[in-house]
Write a structure and sequence with these properties.
heterotrimer, A alpha/beta, B mainly beta, C alpha/beta, B: mainly beta, Ubiquitin-like (UB roll), 7-stranded mixed β-sheet, 1 helix, C: alpha/beta, FAD/NAD(P)-binding domain, Arc Repressor Mutant, subunit A, 5-stranded parallel β-sheet, 23 strands, globular
Chain lengths: 385, 88, 461
């Protein structure tokens, strides 16, 4: 494609949603990835589209809009992404946990999230197989689920049908600018001219920012997911322990893990969630798999006889303040960053695309994007908190 | 019944087996070729590879799903049932 | 306390265990079956009728099995399934499901003899109950005393079809058709190898005699290309086709049967080797095998491999390799022993026969023309050829791994053991490319080697 109006680097879910939003706004978009669609963190994602795990904040506003946008995209591109409005149930067993959960839920409610408190008997009704020693939970009808690989692939397919292009297997080696403005980029095979480049490379966004002589403090946070054999229908919603929220917000490098379980459209059960800062370490950590299994069984004892079939790991892109980076580069105009969504990349992708597109085209964004701006890092070295 | 014969049930029906035989083999000996229905298209499946590699011959054994009939040894009083999809 | 861990109780594993023990190394032999012998010497307990007629050389098998049982230095764990194996700088950890619980074995020396299973090709109707593999029919007969059906079609390619057909006849069944896809004259190119291995000819004639007494006639250059179900959804008939040398269809005829035993050689089970980081390569028959040096040592020091996983070649080559691996492993742990020239000569002779086998029974790509878009390719997840094509044409998959992630092909319970090889060929065909070695090797990557109940996983250390 000659002279695209914009180039998106990265064909994961964030890159795909951004390309779609730009395409729908009338821009000619080229998407470039060094590998196939969803070959980064998106391919290791669970498919979470959550409003339940965020405190009232800019991120929650982003999440609420993004969740609705998923359903609009699903209709727009004709489905095929296994989108399910399955709802989430958050539980807690400890007194403190329950009181924290109650507080969070009422704050979220005030900020536009539908919440329904569940006592012991309504919890049992919502989830008949949940451990009988759990007596309190909150149901979030807004939580949803999709299949992330299919989502990214179907969205890229739609982008191509609408006049966009996708190039697979080219590695960007330099992002070119003149007098502080983007003029294009160079890969290991070609050079492209464009006034707009969007860095949607997730866990590698820091490396890619360097190719423009810029800076983004994004680090990997490893996570494992267990996948079971196809199982009887045991779990109706996405169910997780309230500790999950605390772990997401934590900056500790050591292993954080808490129970997250759900069924899928294909019949398997997915079990998470663990978070470690171990760089890009590739090994299969058996101790973590055991811990995840223990936690899941603690929530749903009947899982004991269900078999683990496979496990995979992904590297969540993680910014030091736990907020995604969505906005124009501090120094280079025309260079936009859409990365660092940590464990919420799939959920937040559509709204990210909308915010980027609005800022590029000059339309009014649905919310003030300032909290996500990369200018908040003020260049210079990142120091771990 | 000889000293080597035992009995288990398949969907409630009594099935004879020789000690050491797999559930799948004993069922096949009674002409039971189909053991389950697949979970998406509801197609019948039975023993395919016969050696525990293909996971097609799945049955529910004493309440546990996804058991391979071709390698599970038949035991007296075992309760075997058709697996319908993943019994969801 | 054992020094050498042997995984697999077939011809290779039994030979390796005996050789290592004889050399002075205590052995732990781990086998997933209830009875030693592997696939090749599958046998049943004394509850069943005499099994000798089912095997050409069950005697050899029983000799090895009884020798292993008699040796105090060999500890045997049967019905033990390794679900995970990791390599921590030369210390290998095997996590095993044994008697309902998990057992951990740490060792610095392993001999992998995990064998092979029938290679299958997808075709319309291959998922109908009644369609099986030759190994499955053989196992039902030899291991469980059950004849799979009364009217049996035996088809595919390779000498393994002979004992299966003979077994059916000896058990009172009818072999309505015995179809070998390749022409018999391919053997003429390896005449010297046949002369070198006259014992093999004797074996072939043993089966052929039974088959002709059973009034079955082998047809060369024919294949089963479609299976049809009756109104009960089970196998009723198959279409058999005269095929050309590339396996393209020339003429079709329908015949009634209740069992079709169809196999296309063998696929090695290298999951454990791969988990431990052993280098895998693609063999001349395009199967993925474990690379070994002249002493059967893999690319990982301390891990040896023998038998079908180092290259499909039959039981006698497996035994020859097992002996060398056992001696080399014993030497590795400090025993004063050497591999003899005689061992290497015997292995070389059997390797030549194995090479000739591969040349004589190729699987040609024309098999892909038997499929249509509705044909199931991944049995576990019910993925059709049409689904696979969509993932390439519409979703942009450019390799089999991505196609797998888009379609769930190979993500079911068998983790791609049945469909993996075929999917690599089918996707490459869609892309009008040749499959790469990387494609083939990534298709056999399985860090979780066998499903493990979450409760057992949770309780382990």
């Amino acid at each position: 494609m000659k002279n695209p109006d914009a180039i998106v680097i990265g064909a994961g879910v964030v890159g795909a949603c951004t390309a779609l939003a730009l395409s729908n706004a009338g821009l000619k978009v080229l998407v470039i990835d060094r590998g196939p669609v969803a070959s980064g963190t998106t391919g290791a994602g669970e498919g979470n589209i959550l409003v339940s795990d965020k405190e009232p904040s800019a991120e929650l506003t982003l999440a609420i809009r993004s969740r609705d946008a998923w359903f609009e995209i699903d209709t727009d591109i004709g489905g095929g992404i296994e989108l399910e409005a399955k709802g989430g149930v958050v539980v807690s067993r400890s007194t403190k946990g329950i009181s924290d959960l109650k507080k969070l839920a009422s704050l979220q409610k005030v900020n536009g999230v539908e919440t329904i408190e569940l006592d012991a008997s309504s919890l049992q009704e919502a989830e008949p197989f949940i451990s009988k020693d759990i007596s309190y939970g909150v149901l979030y009808p807004g939580d949803a689920q999709c299949q992330p690989m299919l989502a990214a692939a179907q969205i890229i397919r739609a982008v191509r049908k609408r006049g966009g292009s996708f190039i697979q297997g080219e590695n960007v080696v330099k992002i070119n600018s003149v007098s502080g403005s983007i003029i294009g980029l160079t890969t290991d095979k070609n050079t492209y001219s464009t006034p707009v480049v969007i860095n949607a490379t997730g866990t590698w966004a820091g490396e890619v920012a360097k190719l423009a002589n810029s800076f983004l403090p994004i680090l990997p946070r490893r996570g494992f997911i267990l996948v079971t054999s196809p199982a009887p229908k045991i779990i109706n919603h996405k169910v997780y322990d309230a500790d999950y929220v605390a772990n997401v917000a934590s900056g500790e490098a050591d292993l954080q893990s808490s129970a997250v379980v759900e069924g899928t459209a294909s019949g398997t059960i997915l079990i998470g969630a663990s978070r470690e800062r171990v760089g890009f370490k590739n090994d299969l950590n058996i101790a973590i798999l055991r811990q995840l299994a223990r936690q899941a069984i603690s929530l749903f004892p009947v899982l004991s006889t269900i078999q683990l079939l496979r496990a995979y790991r992904g590297f969540r892109p993680y910014a030091p303040d736990h907020l995604p980076v969505i906005g124009e580069d501090e120094n280079i105009s025309g260079l936009w960053h859409a990365a660092g969504h940590e464990g919420a990349g799939i959920g937040l992708a559509p709204a990210t695309g909308e915010l980027i597109t609005a800022q590029i085209t000059g339309a009014t964004p649905f919310m003030d994007p300032a909290p996500f701006s990369p200018k908040r890092f003020k260049g210079g070295e990142y120091v771990a908190v | 019944m000889s000293q080597f014969e035992i009995e288990f049930t398949f969907d409630g029906k009594a099935i004879p087996a020789i000690i050491g035989q797999s559930v799948g083999a004993a069922l096949l000996a009674t002409n039971q070729r189909s053991l389950r229905k697949t979970r998406f298209n509801k197609n019948k499946r039975g023993i395919f590879c016969g050696i525990g590699v293909c996971f097609d011959c799945l049955v529910v054994v004493d309440g546990v799903t996804n058991q391979r009939a071709c390698i599970i040894e038949a035991k007296p009083g075992m309760k075997v049932q058709t697996q319908d999809g993943s019994n969801a | 306390m054992h020094n050498v861990v042997v995984v697999g109780g077939g011809p290779a594993g039994l030979s390796a265990a005996l050789a290592a023990a004889a050399a002075g190394a205590p052995v732990l032999l781990i086998d997933s079956n209830s009875r030693l012998g592997g696939q090749y010497w599958r046998n049943s307990s004394d509850n069943f009728d005499d099994q000798h007629e089912q095997h050409f050389d069950l005697e050899t098998g029983l000799l090895l099995i009884n020798a292993v049982k008699a040796r105090k230095e060999i500890e045997v764990w049967s019905e033990a399934q390794i679900w995970s194996a990791t390599n921590n700088e030369g210390k290998f950890t095997l996590r095993i499901i044994y008697q309902g619980k998990e057992k951990i074995v740490n060792t610095a020396n392993i001999i992998l003899c995990t064998g092979a299973y029938d290679r299958t090709l997808p075709f319309p109707g291959w998922d109908i109950p009644g369609v099986m593999t030759p190994g499955g029919v053989q196992s039902l007969l030899k291991g469980h005393g059950v004849l799979a059906g009364k009217r049996v079609v035996v088809a595919g390619t390779g000498p393994f079809l002979l004992p299966v057909a003979a077994g059916v006849i000896k058990a009172g069944g009818e072999v309505v058709s015995l179809l070998e896809a390749n022409k018999s004259r391919r053997w003429l190119t390896s005449f010297n190898v046949i002369l070198e291995n006259l014992g093999k000819l004797k074996e072939a004639f043993y089966y052929i005699k039974t088959i002709s007494e059973g009034k079955a006639r082998a047809k060369f250059g024919y294949a089963v290309i479609t299976a049809h179900a009756g109104s009960n959804g089970e196998l009723e008939s198959v279409d058999i086709a005269k095929i050309d040398r590339n396996f393209n269809v020339k003429k079709i005829k329908n015949i009634k049967c209740d069992v079709a035993a169809i196999g296309w050689g063998f696929t090695a089970d290298t999951s454990l080797a791969g988990s431990l980081g052993c280098k895998q390569v693609v063999a001349k028959d395009e199967s993925v095998i474990v690379w070994v040096d002249n002493n059967q040592q893999t690319s990982i020091s301390g891990i040896f491999a023998a038998g079908e996983i180092t290259g499909i070649g039959g039981s006698e080559l497996s035994m020859a390799e097992g002996v060398i691996a056992g001696i080399a492993a014993a030497k590795f742990v400090g025993c004063k022993v050497e591999v003899l020239k005689a061992h290497r000569k015997r292995r070389a002779k059997r390797q030549r026969f194995a090479n000739a086998l591969i040349k004589a029974y190729p699987v040609k790509l024309g098999w892909q023309s038997w499929l249509n878009d509705q044909t199931t390719v991944c049995r576990c997840e019910e993925v059709s050829l049409g689904d696979l094509k969509y993932s390439v044409e519409e979703l942009g998959a450019t390799d089999s791994r991505t196609a797998k992630l888009f379609t769930r092909c190979g993500m079911g319970l068998c983790q791609g053991r049945i469909c993996g090889r075929s999917v690599v060929d089918l996707v490459a065909n869609e892309l009008k490319l040749l499959p790469t070695d990387t494609d083939r090797i990534s298709a056999v990557n399985r860090p979780i080697i066998t499903p493990i109940p979450l409760g057992v996983l949770a309780q382990g250390e």
